[in-house]
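User: I'm new to structure prediction. If I give you an amino acid sequence, what do you actually give back? Let's try with this one:
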Amino acid sequence: MSSTTYTPTVIAPPVPTASPDTVELLPGQSKVFSSIFDGQTGDTDPALATKGTGAPDLTNSTVCIIDPATSVCDTDGIVTIAGQGTYTLNPTTGIVTYAAVSSATPGAKTPVTYQITDGLGRSVTSTLTPTITPPPVANPDFSTGVQGAIQTLSPVGNDRPGGGASTELFPDTRVQVPSGIFLCAANQPPPDCAATTVEVFENGVKLGVLTVAATGLVTFTPEPNFIGTTPAIGYQLPDNLGQKAYSTITITVLPPPAPSATIDTGSAEYNKPVTLKPWMNDSAGAVPDGSSVAAPSLMATSIKLCDDNSTFVAMSGTPADCTATKVKTIEGTYEVNATTGEVVFTPVNGFTGTVKYPPTYQIWNNWTGSGGAKSATALLVPTIAPPGAPAATVDITKTKPGTSVVLNPVSNDKPGTAALDPTTIRLCGAGEISPACTQMSVTTLDGLYVVEPTTGQVTFTPRDGFTGQATIPYIIKDGLGMMANANLIITVEDTAVVPVVKKTKVGLAKTGGARPDLLLLLGILALVGAGGLRVASRKR
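Assistant: Good question. You get back a string of structure tokens that encode the predicted 3D arrangement of the chain. For your 540 residues, that looks like this:
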């Protein structure tokens, strides 16, 4: 009888694998990392460590966190990093919680190493790293305009979310929340600012009123006689994580011949560019009383965009710091045509609605009198319609001084999926910013605008003595309630006075005899009569 010997070979299963993990949190906040092994509670992410094929399940493994100060497993599962935060391990669930101290500074914090040992006594390690989210950064905002003009600015335009610096505006997914802007009243230091309207005083004298809208745009309405620069008024805004940034708004009101720039709106179809002509609704400024210098005019080719690094110098007599010809935001790209002054907004693919982060533009006049040329700033606020939405087009017409003119805005507007409804046409009144227009009748310094409720036609009656360009934003909706907006622009032409020469009768002196003038007239008539007979006798 023969025999054989069988010697089995036992191959150990592969060792476990361990992966790193990160969490992002605010100072004073706690966050949990993904569970180290399967079978966790309170966590829905995949486990950080996985067993090898055929190896024991890791739910019966041993886990620990290693103290960076000793490089050994901490016996109680609690590791504190001075000035940063504390790691706490729950060995039953495999979940590590990190609690940041309230004074933790932004950036990545000291990581800890976790270790997991399976049932075969084999250990693997990886790291857990918390990061404190940087807070948003707000920068000072400046605006300037001529005496008596309402000024509008967008504080978020040069502010930054906590994602860090970039050459583009708001590139991070943690975008600011414009509707969360609040002004700081006299008794409201940051971070407790809660006002939406603040009256601005200096030495007991009221200078004007600052108001923040739900859109995040801020308007300043000056007192009629105010000229100068306001004290800096504080504002604060949050990011979507609740962190707050604080900065200031400073307004300058200039006397004539300062120009006046007005917020520009326009709309386009889905995924189409919007072309804005900022100078069309701006004013070059009036000649100061007593000056003999020619009236200034606007220089469209002087238009520049204020990028995120710009600080507008309101009183400068030389070009200010707004020098960009191209600015990017998370909503699209704005680019100035250096030849025409037009600004083209090209939306990012898929963007719809009215921009939340409008850039500021600057425009100069050509005043050659005392102080030299002056400039003004305003916002560019385009709207991109969703698919199938209507699109409105600027309406332009002319009239004579004191003569009413009728415009029919719906005539050149383009419907989307549904027909346009002319009865929905509304104008922007004082303090309203397109597309939040609600008025059927508006009186401005230029004249009176009235909407006919049935046809949507708008009648403009210039005020007595007014000449120049008048403009007003309007909106129109379609049958589905989708809205479009544009402007009405009327030029009231300054008609030249044509002199009228008074006719004077010329006669011959009376002689008492036959009148030579009558004899001459009779002779001419006789000749004409004879000529007429000859013409009548010609063959055709």
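You can read the tokens as a compact description of the fold. Here is one thing that stands out. The two ends are 150 Å apart (CA to CA).
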